[in-house]
Fold this sequence. Notes:
Blueprint: H1 17-24, H2 29-34, H3 40-47, E1 51-54, H4 57-60, H5 74-97, E2 99-100, E3 103-104, E4 110-116, H6 121-136, E5 141-147, E6 169-173, E7 176-177, E8 192-196, E9 199-200, H7 202-210, E10 217-221, E11 228-230, E12 239-243, E13 250-252, E14 260-264, E15 271-272, E16 282-286, H8 290-296, E17 303-307, H9 313-320, E18 328-332, E19 338-342, E20 348-352, E21 359-363, E22 369-374, E23 378-382, E24 388-393, E25 403-405, E26 408-410, H10 412-424, E27 432-437, H11 447-450, E28 463-468, H12 477-487, E29 493-497, E30 512-520, E31 526-534, H13 538-545
Organism: Acer yangbiense
Protein name: F-box domain-containing protein
Domain F-box: 9-45
Amino acid sequence: MKKIKVEEIDWISRLPDSILNYIFSFLPFKEAVQTCVLSKRWEELWLSHPVLEFDRSLFDGGLRDPLRSNNYNMETNKEYRWRAKELFSALVRNLRKRRKGKETLFPLKKLALEMDFFNDFQLKSLLDRCISYAVGCNVKELKLIFNCSSTYLWYNPRQVIFSANSIEVLELKGWKLELPRRSKVMLSSLRKLILIGVYAGDYMMKNLVDGCPLIETLSFSACSGFKSVDVSGLSKLNEVKLTDNHQLEKLVIEESNVHILSIGGPARPHDISSGFCRDLISLSLSDIPNGWISSAICENLTSLSLSNVSKINKWLYYQISKLPFLEYLSIDKCSISSLEISSQSLKTLMILGCSALVGLRINTPNLHIFEYRGGIVFFSIDVLALSKFSLHLCCPRVESRWYLHEYGFFEPTQWYIKYVEFLAKLNDFSDVLQLQFEMGEDAIVPPVMRKVLSSPILTDVKHLNLRLDTFPMCWSITKLADSLLWLAPHTRNVSIRYGVLDESTFKHCIEEVKLDITDEYYQGETNSKSYILKGVDIMMQIDALCGDAVF
């Protein structure tokens, strides 16, 4: 029998460029790269893709045990290096084809690389070429994240990156920045600079700051090598963030328009200029001595965040009253025993993890959002109405008659009495209440306690949301729902966020129940399902969803 030869036709290549580009624009970068094997036309289109992003999964996918953070051996190390070299070789070809002579045929908007960096000459050479070609393609955003196991592996780049006039956003991690004595940094278009775990000497840092006249955002985290940062005279500078920079001793921000300042971490500057205070509207301080905070406070502040700051009880009360525009206040893990806050302008208040706190007085008539995480304390609040009220209560729980916790000793009955009294004070302030506990058992008021405690407690709450953090012990949704509805019998909506629910029945009639059920696998992947249940047969719907099964 005579064989008939069928001519293969590449229909994709015959599509108009406008249609191919339209399809291509919807593809994530990883899928866009995979399409290159379909036809030559797709490979040509990849050249026009404005964003090139390579995350760690492209390098070490399938090489790591998900249950172990660092488990490279000789074979996986070899495979990783081979993948990196192959990928960078392809990237070099891509970037090289984007230019013809001095003309850029296909501009590059963003290049992002995240990988573990090895001391390999060939790999470094390919990386140098990638960066040089990217700069030649007038890249606007450059994000190069290198995870180094040791400081001697820090990547030392070519000088071309310091004279890239097209770069507007530059984010670097795991780099060693050095500059010859007679060289200068000229990043005339740079607006945002983020350095993480970068080494740079004082000479390099001074040139880096001076060479960015249009800089708007500076963020240095866990960096070393420089002892001072002077950003004076940068008229466009709006935000400065300095976190845990080793060896940094002095910060100067004179004659600038900085509006947002964040300073913190165990390694922080001890000498800080205060000439910038008049323009600050947002201030975030962590691990800062109390004596310096007063000089940093500006009457124009609208946002203030304090973390790990001690002895601020009286200071905070008097300072807050002097901030007529303050709208946001966050106090996190501060060593304070009592706290009194009075403000006419405050709209959002967050008090989180202040373990020594025993008393709280709040006089903020215009407060809209209040979030509290900690133990049960003496509580007095004067507000008109809250749109959101979140409570993450730490329930002391041990296998004994007395409960021991960082917030003190409690007998079980005493804790529930304090818990109910605490909630009773919140009834008038918001019709939406969000409760958060570590365990499902923590949210259940035992039936024996309900007989001696007054109810209803939260008569005005219309929407009750409960979030549980960790894997449960032995508890049932029946008891949980009964307890919640005993606290808020008139609620119209109950939302329970959790990953495991057991057999359930509802003994109260409510209009709506929301169940969020999440499976979490050992690889870290999750599968979430949400159910909105309505009608008189809510009990049957819950039983049908849950039954005796564990989700």
